[in-house]
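Schema walk-through. Below, the input block comes first and the output block second. Nothing else is stored per chain. Lengths vary across the set, and this one has 391 residues.
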Amino acid sequence: MSTPGPFGSGNPFEGLFGELAKLFANQGPLNLEVARQLAQWLAVEGQAEPNVEPLERIRYGELARVAELQVAAATGLASSPGGRVATIQPVGRGEWARHTLDAYRSFFEGLATAMVAPPSAADIDDLVDPATELLGGVTQVVGPLLIGMQAGTMVGHLAHRAFGQYDLPIPRPPSDELLVVPVNVNAFAGDWSLPLDDVRLWVCLSELSHHSVISLPHVRNRLEALLGEYVRGFKPDPRVLEERMGDVDPTNPASFQAVLGDPAELLGAMQTPEQRQVLGRVEALVAAIEGYVDHVMDTVGQGLLGSYASLSEALRRRRVERTDGDQFVERLFGLELSQAQYDRGSAFVAGVVSRAGEEGLARLWHSERELPTPAEVDAPGLWLERIDLPD
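--- output ---
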């Protein structure tokens, strides 16, 4: 049975123009209701979504207990804030999309606030077309809907790919429950002819390893601050909006979908030099996190999973083969995760271990002082020297 889309049945953009008054009557910089409805519709493809089977929930619970013990032993870190034990919660794509949209809400609102900001007098003076002042006003009207639709579309598409909540290393509100999406895990295991329980356990290990680091208050605060600074730094370009909106045909809803369906071009036009400075710090911290998690996974997985070699190779190929939805969220948050980025993190961790052993690596997450700078990620010896200096 089909589930109605946010603007009617069938295509989610169907009936859009008949709902314009309602859609534009939005309070605040982000039309969250449109984002939620669109994310949900795309996540479940307009169909009713069945609950996760009880036996599958039980199996994830069993594997999560194994993974938690292994990750705790390898990292010496608690799996959740306050020393509590994190649990794995299997969910459908629709529920994953709802939680993810709520978790990323502050970032989307930061982007929306930047998007609807009117151009400064200096910006207007620099623009050739005097109509851009008027277009800045149009941006403030269209912006909440535009960002709402982009956010919903992005999250809805990501729901078809995500294994859990840390496919992208973006902090979420503190919680003891980690979401995994069994239907995506099962599909991947089948596509690669991998043992299903091995893939499930790998996902549990990866989620818990990420969470044990990202849930540390000083890591969370630093990463949230950097991502927030990056997102809020986007600067609207009225000329780009004029070009994009010029392609809209009010008699053809598909033209509206085409304009809003490729936000990457718009974000690229809005990126500022200040954001590029923040980007270096984001990339360095994320490289350190991913390099550390890979190290933990190699340490634990090789002795725990019989198919670890083929499994890890398949999964590492998957993570650098990004979809359009992945690429948009990466550009939005400054998280363009390439193989070079993963290699950079792995080289940093390997350099630390070769110089100071596992004990030296464990110091990486002691406090905010120990978080590496961009230069130190590329020269682990410098990081070790600095953290040995007196405060």
